[in-house]
Amino acid sequence: MVDILHEIEAAVPALRRYARALTRDFDRADDLVQDCLERALAKRGLFPPKGPVRAWLFTILVNVHRNSLRGSRRRGEVVDFADIPEPSVPAPQPGHMALAELDRAIGMLPHEQKEALLLVTLEGLPYAEAAAILDIPLGTLMSRLGRARAALKTLTGTPSEPHLRTVK
């Protein structure tokens, strides 16, 4: 019991990083991780001790996020006035512009592609583990990754994104 709590605690930084990349909002990401951890602790008796705790937590996080998206579609999205950028802000340096462009492009991907891309590239998970977390066949994961990378190439107008390629 204590071991699983230590493994859950050790996974929190990765969960937060993935949640922030999925939601693109620090507060929503922290809420998502909190909901994930609450569900994990409440359901820890159902966890099969043979499997990795981290993969189980990512599965919970993905499911909680999907449920949240379904609910937000029904409610609509609220835009905070403070989040609207000032039009007179000078352009950042080129490196930041490229990162901002890539961030925007990732945000435009279909949700299924974004989930797959972020698990493999941001979290560095092996393809098989990412497929298991998303509860999809390995071939489907590979297809989503290919479509995500092609879409990013088109959206950013770059010949390739070597930093988004991982070999597992």
From TrEMBL:
Example GO molecular function: sigma factor activity
Domain PhyR sigma2 per the UniProt entry, residue ranges: 8-61
Keywords for the protein's UniProt record, in alphabetical order: Sigma factor, Transcription, Transcription regulation
Gene3D superfamilies, alphabetized: 1.10.1740.10, Winged helix-like DNA-binding domain superfamily/Winged helix DNA-binding domain (1.10.10.10)
Domain of life of the native organism: Bacteria
Biological-process GO terms, alphabetical: DNA-templated transcription initiation
Domain RNA polymerase sigma factor 70 region 4 type: 100-152
Family: Belongs to the sigma-70 factor family. ECF subfamily.
Protein name: RNA polymerase sigma factor
Upper lineage: Bacteria, Pseudomonadati, Pseudomonadota, Alphaproteobacteria, Hyphomicrobiales
